[in-house]
Predict the 3D structure of the following.
Amino acid sequence: MATLPVYPWRLAPDGLATRRQLRAAGLRPGGQDVVAQVERPRRRRGPLTAFLYRIDRARPVRPMTAAKAAALERANAARRTCPACRTDAGYVIPVSLGMCVPCAYPEGAPDGA
């Protein structure tokens, strides 16, 4: 098994991009293998690593269909719906609470706020 070339932060050669850079350009890796990686050093922990893909092998992002958009809207609505009072909270329900803030703290604001 061959090892990947490792480049310092911001010094990767032209023609390679991270997933985020591909997405910003309207592309996706398209099933290709990782060809290299960049590492950004940090002081107290290990380096941050980002995988690089070839831009010339990247494929266009698949367009959003009406069915996908509807499914995404239903999923986001489910994340906003309080399981206790069954109303749309208007924000994503915190996983730590499991319900909207008025249901979690019926007597008022929490002590830490």
The CA atoms of residues 54 and 83 lie 45 Å apart. The first strand starts at residue 6 and ends at 8.
